[in-house]
């Protein structure tokens, strides 16, 4: 059975006919060629497939594409602006938070949602938010450092115009 | 790849009930357990009936008598909704302890209560009792994550972290079905394998769990403790939901309900008796924690759970005292 769905992906409206059993993950990768979102365990354990659905991080391997119809999806490809990386992506580079890199898009996407909700998270809050993202290279220390670094940079940037006007 | 099914997203509860009454139909709430089961061929679906169009099941409505929580409320919402973290704290803590933050954004309260067990024989390629076969492979097999309590002949543990808190809080479950609606006590919703070995609850074809009602009780204090092998997130090895009504420094009423150790949320009635009428002092707490393990029947690989259970009950009671 096929169904036509319309959803917004990284700001662009997409209308496609899909098999009703197709996951959002396969839709993003196979239909829209957005291969930054990774398929790891395919059962919600690892978080490699994390995307934002209506602003909340979800495991796209466990979401049917038809269920995401009408929603807004942000993938790792939707985070950079005019060729400039998102501050969290910059922080991952600066802190050398990437080993094999397979978990990185999911980690970054989860961190984006966290910092939108909580601009100054404690280490415990960061670790708790990232609980559903596995890094099999076990480089968690650098990942947590990057999220803290990005949070500080983003707060400084948000405060900057005020400092100038004062 | 998930084998093919048809899909419907009804707009009314009535329509959903009609669709689900047909053979081979499966309800989709958050989908986090359903998709895994379909992919792993634990069961199949001819039709997936999405409940996501039923917005009336997504609300939390307070009333003077208690709190009506729609079954499609996400676990993240249940964990963070302020009135739940008061007297119904055990439920908020149970929801927060379930799955990962991202799964809690998608998974629902109703889905958490109706999810299928995680037994590796049931989930794996074994034709076990629960899948219509003739053998429980856990009894003579690898049973370190299996039950301490229950009559057999299947030794799963119920995987939910919200079920035990809801039994402790004396919640009522509202069910819609082809014959109309009915309400059952949370405790009576779950069924033991000697009654129904292929089901974990009383839902019949076409029935949907629509609402959880939490009755208000003066002086009610509650909490949930969960022991798991991974700190980040995991199913319970053992857990305890405790709900006490305390008056004049003494326990007037107690419910102690265990998770991760039985095929249903398991009431530790001996522990409840050990608390009732007493002040919550360290000796009473220790005695109640010991009593919670009464009747445990460990198998070859899960005796360690008895100690975890005793600790979980003791911690929960200390947190309230």
Q: Could you name the key traits of this structure?
A:
heterodimer, A: 166 residues, alpha+beta, Ubiquitin-like (UB roll), DNA polymerase, domain 1, 2 domains, five-stranded mixed sheet, B: 321 residues, Uridine Diphospho-n-acetylenolpyruvylglucosamine Reductase, domain 3, five-stranded antiparallel sheet, four-stranded antiparallel sheet, 12 strands, 30% helix
Would you kindly provide a brief summary of this structure?
Chain A is an alpha+beta fold. Chain A contains six helices and five strands; from the N terminus they run ββαββαβαααα.
Shape assignment of chain B: globular
Please, what is the average pLDDT of chain B?
A: 97
Rounded to the nearest angstrom, the radius of gyration of chain A is 17 Å
Report how far apart the termini of chain B are: 51 Å
Nearest-angstrom radius of gyration of chain B?
Answer: 19 Å
Q: Can you tell me the CATH topology of chain B?
A: Uridine Diphospho-n-acetylenolpyruvylglucosamine Reductase, domain 3
- Shape estimate of chain A: globular
* DSSP helical segment count of chain B: 13
- Oligomer kind: heterodimer
Helical proportion of chain B? Answer: 25-40%
User: How many structural domains are formed by the residues of chain A?
Assistant: 2
- List the strand order in the largest sheet of chain A: 2-1-5-3-4
Going by CATH, what is the homologous superfamily of the largest domain in chain A?
Beta-grasp domain
Give a structural overview.
The complex is a heterodimer of chains A (166) and B (321). Chain A is α+β, with helices and mostly antiparallel strands and 166 residues long. Chain A folds into two domains: 2-78, Beta-grasp domain (Ubiquitin-like (UB roll)); 87-160, [2Fe-2S]-binding domain (DNA polymerase, domain 1). Chain A is built from six helices and five strands. Chain A has helices at 24-31, 65-68, 87-94, 104-117, 123-129, 140-165, and strands at residues 2-9, 12-19, 50-53, 56-59, 72-74. A five-stranded mixed β-sheet of chain A has the order 2-1-5-3-4, sandwiched between helices. In chain A, helix 3 (87-94) crosses helix 6 (140-165). Chain A is globular and about 50 Å long. The model of chain A has no long low-confidence stretch (mean pLDDT 95). Chain B is of the alpha+beta class and 321 residues long. Chain B has one domain (55-115, 157-320): Uridine Diphospho-n-acetylenolpyruvylglucosamine Reductase, domain 3 (2-Layer Sandwich). Helix content of chain B is 30%, strand content 22%. Chain B is built from 13 helices and twelve strands. Chain B has a five-stranded antiparallel β-sheet. The radius of gyration of chain B is 19 Å and the shape is globular. The chains are: A alpha+beta (166), B alpha+beta (321). The interface between A and B is medium-sized, with 28 and 28 residues.
């Amino acid at each position: 059975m096929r169904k036509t769905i319309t959803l917004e992906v990284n700001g662009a409206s997409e209308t496609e006919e899909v098999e009703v059993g197709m996951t959002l993950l396969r839709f993003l990768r196979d239909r829209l060629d957005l291969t930054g979102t990774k398929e790891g365990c395919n059962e919600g354990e690892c978080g490699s497939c994390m995307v934002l659905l209506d602003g909340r991080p979800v495991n796209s391997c466990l979401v049917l594409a038809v269920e995401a119809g009408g929603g807004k999806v942000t993938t790792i490809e939707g985070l950079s602006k005019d060729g400039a990386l998102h501050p969290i992506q910059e922080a991952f580079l600066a802190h050398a938070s990437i080993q094999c890199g397979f978990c990185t898009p999911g980690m970054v996407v989860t961190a984006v949602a966290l910092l939108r909700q909580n601009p100054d998270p404690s280490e415990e809050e960061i670790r708790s938010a990232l609980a559903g993202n596995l890094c099999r290279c076990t480089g968690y220390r650098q990942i947590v450092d990057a999220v803290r670094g990005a949070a500080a940079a983003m707060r400084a940037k948000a405060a900057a115009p005020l400092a100038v006007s004062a | 790849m998930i084998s093919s099914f048809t899909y419907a997203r009804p707009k009314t509860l009535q329509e959903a009930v009609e669709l689900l009454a047909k053979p081979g139909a499966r309800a989709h709430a958050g989908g986090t357990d359903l998709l895994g089961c379909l992919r792993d061929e634990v069961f199949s679906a001819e039709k997936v009936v999405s409940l996501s169009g039923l917005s009336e099941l997504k609300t939390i409505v307070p009333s003077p008598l208690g709190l009506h929580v729609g079954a499609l409320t996400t676990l993240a919402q249940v964990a963070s909704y302020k009135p739940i973290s008061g007297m119904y704290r055990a439920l908020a803590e149970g929801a927060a302890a379930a799955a990962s933050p991202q799964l809690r954004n998608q998974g629902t309260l109703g889905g958490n209560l109706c999810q299928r067990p995680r037994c590796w024989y049931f989930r794996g390629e074994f034709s076990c009792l629960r899948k219509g076969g003739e053998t429980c492979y856990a009894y003579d097999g690898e049973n370190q994550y299996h039950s301490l309590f229950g009559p057999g002949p299947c030794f799963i543990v119920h995987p939910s972290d919200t079920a035990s808190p809801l039994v402790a809080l004396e919640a009522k479950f509202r069910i819609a079905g082809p014959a109309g609606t009915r309400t059952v006590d949370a405790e009576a919703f779950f069924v033991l394998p000697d009654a129904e070995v292929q089901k974990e609850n009383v839902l019949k074809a076409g029935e949907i769990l629509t609402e959880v009602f939490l009755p208000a009780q003066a002086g009610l204090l509650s909490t949930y403790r969960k022991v798991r092998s991974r700190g980040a997130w995991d199913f319970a090895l053992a857990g305890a939901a405790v709900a006490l009504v305390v008056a004049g420094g003494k326990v007037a009423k107690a419910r102690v309900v265990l998770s991760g150790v039985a095929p249903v949320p398991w009431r530790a009635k001996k522990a409840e008796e050990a608390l009732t009428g007493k002040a919550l002092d360290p000796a009473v707490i220790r005695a109640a924690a010991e009593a919670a393990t009464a009747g445990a029947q460990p198998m070859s690989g899960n005796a360690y759970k008895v100690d975890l259970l005793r600790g979980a009950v003791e911690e929960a009671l200390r947190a309230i005292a």
